[in-house]
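Appendix B, record 7
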Amino acid sequence: MNSAQTIVVAGLWGTAILALAIGVYSWRRRSMGEWAISFAVLAFAIAFWSFAYGMEVAVETQAAKLFWAKIEYVGIVTVPVAWFVFALQYTNRAGWLTRRWLLALCISPALTLLLVFTNEWQHDLIWTEIGMDSSGLIPVLATTHGVWFWIHSAYSYILIIAGAILLIQAFARYPRAYRRQNASLVAGALLPLVANVIFLSGVLPLPHLDYTTFSFAICCLLIANAIFRYRLFELVPVARRTAVDNMRDGLIVLDLQNRILDINPAALNLFQRPAIEMVGYPLYQFLQDQAYILDGFRDITDMETEIDVNTPDRLRTFALQISPLHDGRDHLSGRMITFHDITARKEAEQALARARDEALAASRFKSELLARVSHELRTPLNVILGYTEMLQEGIFGPLTPAQWEPTQKIVASTDFLARQVNELLDLARLEVGQLQVNIREMSVADVVRDVHEKMVVLADAKGIQLLSQVQDNVPTIVMGDPNRTAQILLNLVGNAIKFSDGGVVQQQVLVADGRLLLRVSDQGIGIPAEMQETIFEPFMQVDGSLTRQRSGTGLGLAIVKQLTELMAGSITLESKVAQGSTFTICLPLVTANGEENSDAGNHK
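Structure tokens (predicted):
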């Protein structure tokens, strides 16, 4: 092997090593997408072709050169197919690569390989004449090509040119940085094509030396430039496939004529069509029955709105966003439409609204019913109570001792029922906002004294000591509603007595942190921690057995809480089971006549 052969072989094998390295690099990043696999196959095919051609140049005999020339064809037939498949996948047209089409692409390469290795069977479809040309610096294989060689060459040119066109089309869609990496790829693909045309024309010296393979050295450098300088494996298409193809929202890219340039799988799913049937065609032709949807957006380049679309299964609602696309000169080049299916959210909102309206209607009906029933019950209760008191006063004649006791029970039961009706009426009026507070001057000491006098008899009957205290720092006169304040204390003190079997019940009024505090404590059964959040709800008591043992509807605390909030106050509870409870009402303190202190004392 002379020095010229050595230089050529070194160049070819260097090209093979570089292509092999690129192939390994691509294969290791195959998780980024199928396009990385086809790119690796392309690089491996180039490496194989370059290595085999180097062997052809290195060997001396015609038989040996012919053997390696045949081996080269494994790479020769693979390169165009791998390049075209890579271009389809890289430009997001992998939907065209069905199994049937992929097999169709491989028919010509497979048949070419078969004819190459059977050329000696005298069909002469690849080579009609085979000889040696030793006239130059490098002895080369001199051949005359047959018919199938030209058919295969045309097929290869078509695939390589088609792949290059796909990448060139991508220039218009990708930003400038991505266009540069595509330019490197296209130049790398077209250079061997040009070199092959020159080789077949025989216009250069050493006409039987295939310059195509030498061009692969430059081709590999251009591809390596796309990989390492322009980050082929880090920019588009990796970001596009992860951020666009896998996004749940639909995305459509339109040109200025509203033709579809790109569409992601989420959008294809809505139209129920493959990409091959939509890309390049006007969007309006796929919305013939609902073209009105886009009529209002035909010339709009930037907006956000919601639209309703009749799909085959149901009416859907989408959040639609239209964004402008600009080229490198900041000229408008198209629009990007993204849409997010918000049907489920809208249906949930509508269901929630219906449920809210139904709940409000039910609440109003309940409150109105309670108010009406409570009001209607008052009249017969007053009649019962009035006639019973008349019987006790002897208006209809004197009562015997045996008759007196039943009338006492009638009066007590009627009083109890009247209180329950009043509580129901108060709760109903509170819930519909009909109950108002009447803010005026009031004496806190008088309110506490009145509550004490009303409840002390009930406390004494159960052997409970009732203590009432107004601390000295409470102003004599404050602004408030004496009736509602008394109602709050009566409910709290009544509950404390009801749920205690002895000990002390205390009502206390004090001023702390500029607020008026009403505090009622007892030594009764207490309230479990898990019940302390729900005890203020209507009809709630500590448990069912207590409801039976200790009469009441469970409305007292609910009324207390709502009255407190109506007066811009709050209520807190501290309680331990079997140790008692303390309720604290915190109300705004508004003094009258500028007085700060109270001379009210203790009441027992």
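Remarks on this record: The domain at 3-239 is CATH 1.20.1070 (Rhopdopsin 7-helix transmembrane proteins). The radius of gyration is 48 Å.
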